[in-house]
Model the fold of this input.
Amino acid sequence: MPTAVITGASQGLGRAMARALAARGWSLIVDARHAGQLAAAVSGLSTAAGGPGVVTTIPGDVTDPAHRAAIAAAIAPAGRLDLLMNNASRLGPSPQPPLRSYPLAELGEVYQTNVLAPLALIQLLADPLAAAGGMVVNVSSDAATDAYPGWGGYGSAKAALDQLTAVLATEEPGVRWYAFDPGDMRTAMHQRAFPGEDISGRPGPEVAGAALLRLLSHRPPSGRYRASDYPEASRAPGTQRGPAVTR
Ligand SMILES: NC(=O)c1ccc[n+]([C@@H]2O[C@H](COP(=O)([O-])OP(=O)(O)OC[C@H]3O[C@@H](n4cnc5c(N)ncnc54)[C@H](OP(=O)(O)O)[C@@H]3O)[C@@H](O)[C@H]2O)c1
Done:
C-alpha cells in the first residue's frame, strides 16, 4: 500500500491532498502545529471510501528536529515511503514588508520553515524514498520566479526551495523531484497575504490538489510544474502513466 508524508495537512492544499490520497487507499503520515485542527481535518479518513490506508497524525512544527524525527520513526510500521510532500509554509509578516525594512529575525523563521525544514525532512527520508523509487513534492509559488513588491522574503525562500529541488534531481535520480506551484488558492495563508481583500473568487485548494494528483499519476521527469500544467482535461482515460495514484 503506498504511503505519503504530507506536512501542513490540517487545512488548505495539504488537507485537500490528504483527503484525495486517503480516498485512493494511501496510508498517510500528516502533521500541523495545532493538534485539534489536524485531528479534525483527518477524522474518518482511514475509513474513507477506497481504502484500508492508515492515517497517522503527528502534531508538531516542521522546524523542530525532534518532531521531524518522530515523522521518520512513523514510517517504520508502513515499511515504505512513496511520497513526501513538503507543503507546510510560513508567509512571514502580514502585510508583507519591503525588503529594506524586512525584519531579519522573521526572515530567518521564513527560511527555517520553507527551506531548511523541507531539506531536513528530505535528508531523514531519502533512504526509504529511494528504496521505493518515490516522489518528493516541494510546494512552491509564483513568488519564487516573479518579482512582486513585498514578496521578497517568502518568494526568495521558495526560490531557494526550487533550486534545492533542481539540484536534488541531479544528485538523486532514483527519486522524482517536483517543485509544484499551485497558483492562487482560497486559503488561510492567501487571506493573510492579502489582508482585507475579498478572496472568495480564488479557486479552492482542491483544484490545485486535483492537478497535483494528475501530475503524480503521470510521473513526469523531475522539474518545476504549475497546477495549470495539469488542467482537468489532462485526466482523460489512458493518459495516466507510472505507478497509479488512483487505483
Ligand atoms: N494559498 C495560496 O494562494 C498559495 C499560492 C502559492 C503557493 N502556496 C503554497 O501552498 C502551500 C499550502 O498553502 P495553503 O495556502 O494551503 O496554506 P494554509 O491553508 O495556510 O495551510 C497551511 C498548513 O500548514 C500548517 N503549518 C504551517 N506552518 C507549519 C509548521 N511550521 N509546521 C507544521 N505545519 C505547519 C498549518 O497548520 P498549523 O497552523 O496548525 O501548523 C496548515 O495545516 C504552502 O507551501 C504555500 O506556500 C499557497
In short: The first strand starts at residue 3 and ends at 6. The chain is about 40% helix and 10% strand.
